[in-house]
Amino acid sequence: MNAMQTTAATKPLSYAGRNVLVTGADGFIGSHLVEALVKTGAHVTALSYYNSFGANGWLDDLESETFGKIDIRAGDIRDERFVHGLVAGQNVVFHLAALIGIPYSYIAPASYVDVNVKGSMNILNASLDHGVARVVHTSTSEVYGSARVTPITEDHPLQAQSPYSASKIAADAMAEAYAKSFDLPVVILRPFNTFGPRQSERAVIPTIIRQALDPNCATIQIGDLTPQRDFNFVGDTVNAFIATGGATGLTHGAAYNAGSGNAVSIGDALARILAITGANKEVMHEGARVRPENSEVRLLLADAEKFIAATGWTSKIDFDSGLEQTVEWWRAHLNANAFRLGASYAV
């Protein structure tokens, strides 16, 4: 099979005994991915964004048995020399490290180019130089912008409605270029909105849950309730990453959507969270949480049929079950001073 062919889903390659790197491992999705990969028997190297406190983000919350099996490296994907040393000897690279906060991208767009585009190029170059067998480059459903048609397939036009999405479009294009120009075995995974334990309050679901549970919050402050999102529990998203890293039926340089195919409005998510938590608080509109008029993405709804056909992956955890697990995690952690929200750029 050449780099640009696609075949039907086949049995994925085993991770047991393979050297696997996860960038952005200290973040929300990255820490869950590290946990899952350790269970497969992989030798996991986890990149944690360097800081002077010696903290490793959410990796520090892992069970001691799991933590002891991880090779944690502190560093920065913007440092080319460091990245080359990090990638050397790896069989599979999961590249999740990125600046991801959309509001901050309006303030500091150049930072998003440095991290998301140039940092990704460092990963691609190092993977090419060291003969990595599979690179999984993390995209985002935000690259589609406001949907022109739904559900959204991978052929949907890409629309840069924020500096963040613009940087991710550029990084995706670079991954595609490295596949076509240099035969790099890179695949672009495009997860739709992920939620679950360990997610920071930059995202809407943990923002609502924390305010609903926190006795210090008399009201719940929220922005626009009308946008709709294809929400996916973190366990399903992690399984999508694992399927992408080991599947043999994927096209190098191509993007694949991973989503449930179900859309939920922010207002409906709010109502379900209030029901689960039993909170009876006034909901207040907060203008500071609303995106600029032409930047808001009204609807994201995935068509993941291409990815499902190539890997056999499916979304298995329904929205309400995922919310219940997430609320329980917040109940356990809200008063435990445990919110180490990970690096400033980690997925």
Task: Please explain how this structure is put together.
The chain has a domain at 19-196 and 232-260 and 301-316: NAD(P)-binding Rossmann-like Domain (Rossmann fold, 3-Layer(aba) Sandwich). Helix 1 (28-39) links the parallel strand 1 (19-23) and strand 2. The strands form 4 sheets. It has a 7-stranded parallel sheet with strand order 3-2-1-4-5-6-11, with helices on both faces. It is α/β, with parallel strands linked by helices and 347 residues long. The protein is 37% helix and 15% strand.
Short description:
The chain has 347 residues and is of the alpha/beta class. The chain has eleven helices and 13 strands.
Unreliable stretches = 1-8, 337-345
- Shape label: globular
- CATH superfamily membership of the domain at 19-196 and 232-260 and 301-316: NAD(P)-binding Rossmann-like Domain
Main sheet: strands, sense, barrel = 7 strands, parallel
**Radius of gyration from the CA trace?**
19 Å
Tally of contiguous helical segments: 11
Structure summary, number of beta strands: 13
The CATH C-level name of the domain at 19-196 and 232-260 and 301-316 is Alpha Beta
End-to-end distance, in Å? 32 Å
CATH topology of the domain at 19-196 and 232-260 and 301-316: Rossmann fold
* Mean residue pLDDT: 91
Q: What strand line-up does the widest sheet have? A: 3-2-1-4-5-6-11
Q: Which CATH architecture of the domain at 19-196 and 232-260 and 301-316 is right?
A: 3-Layer(aba) Sandwich
Q: What is the beta-strand fraction? A: 15-25%
| Helicity, as a percent range | 25-40%
Order of helices and strands, N to C?
A: EHEHEHEHHEHEEHEEEHEEHEHH
Quaternary organization: single chain
> SS-based structural class?
alpha/beta
